[in-house]
UniProtKB/TrEMBL annotation:
InterPro entries: BP-dependent_transpt_permease, MetI-like, MetI-like_sf, OppC_N. GO terms for biological process: peptide transport; protein transport; transmembrane transport. It is a multi-pass membrane protein. CDD domains: TM_PBP2 (cd06261). It comes from the Bacteria. This is ABC transporter permease. It comes from Limobrevibacterium gyesilva. It holds the Pfam family OppC_N. The chain crosses the membrane at residues 12-37, 79-102, 114-134, 140-157, 196-221, 241-267. Keywords: Cell membrane, Membrane, Peptide transport, Protein transport, Transmembrane, Transmembrane helix, Transport. Belongs to the binding-protein-dependent transport system permease family. Residues 75-264 form the ABC transmembrane type-1 domain.
């Protein structure tokens, strides 16, 4: 008798595939936003808080703007802030975590003590304080998000580096005269990619919530550019009259965050050898 056929897809692969499909749909809507949006996000119509119709699929807001158009265009701003801020935090976290873990000693202690100060504050409260101090501009919001998430990413990099730098192949490279910088980049960093990918996906999900929450409180990019957080803030008082003005941006926030959470969990299943 022949052995039972092997599964073509593991759980992790299925989750990653679903996550990439969700991400592709999200990016397609965001990138093609100006083309597929029915109206300009600032264009008003005579009917305010109108229900769904052939002209306005999700209705209109309190001053007659098309909710669907603002939802599509608003996603561009929200995801732009999210991706750029996390990219900066990832770059800073990689450098700080790699230097801290590989060099060790006083350098490690100095870097980690500074990061501990930032890490000691709740992320959202720290973000509110920094944005309020610097001002609610696009650049300041991106800088704030990068600052508050850098310590988490640096810690994720530092942990594996402390272990990997003692492995035999690293010692062998050092014994044949390979420079420390080359060892760190070529022999240590590639082996800590797995936790970095997982944590980056989770950070993207968390950042979406942080960005929209700050915008909801009036600390996001100023009008007239729409974003999901400010749309929720504007629509909350009309929720009973026009529920779609709230349901639309709320569903978009959940979908975008869930996309990166599914990717993170799938990557963890695929890349974590111990879980197989």
């Amino acid at each position: 008798m022949t052995d039972a056929p092997r599964r073509l897809w593991t759980k992790g692969q299925v989750m990653v595939a679903i996550g990439f499909v969700m991400l592709a749909a999200l990016l397609a809507i965001v990138i093609l936003g100006p083309v597929i949006a029915p109206y300009s996000p600032s264009k008003t119509s005579p009917g305010s808080l109108a229900g769904p119709s052939a002209a306005h699929w999700l209705g209109t807001d309190s001053i007659g703007r098309d909710v669907l158009s603002r939802l599509i265009i608003g996603g561009r701003g929200t995801l732009l802030i999210t991706v750029v801020a996390v990219a900066i935090a990832l770059a800073a976290g990689l450098v700080l975590g790699l230097v801290s873990g590989y060099v060790g000693g006083r350098v490690d202690q100095a870097i980690m003590r500074v990061l501990d100060v930032v890490f000691a504050f709740p992320v959202f409260l720290l973000a509110i304080a920094v944005v309020a101090a610097l001002g609610p501009t696009l650049q300041n919001l991106i800088l704030t998000i990068a600052i508050v998430y850098t310590p988490t990413l640096a810690r994720v990099v530092r942990g594996p580096v402390l272990s990997v730098k003692r492995w035999d192949h690293v010692e062998a490279a050092r014994s044949v005269g390979v420079g420390e910088f080359a060892i760190a980049i070529r022999h240590v960093l590639p082996l800590v990619v797995s936790p970095i990918l997982v944590q980056t996906s989770l950070t993207l999900a968390n950042t979406i919530f942080t960005v929209t929450a700050l915008s909801f409180l009036g600390l996001g990019p100023p009008p007239p550019d729409p974003n999901w957080g400010s749309m929720l803030a504007e629509a909350r008082q009309f929720m009973e009259l026009a529920p779609l003005t709230v349901i639309g941006p709320a569903a978009a926030i959940v979908f975008a965050s869930l996309t990166f959470i599914v990717l993170a969990n799938g990557l963890r299943e695929m890349l974590d050898v111990g879980s197989r």
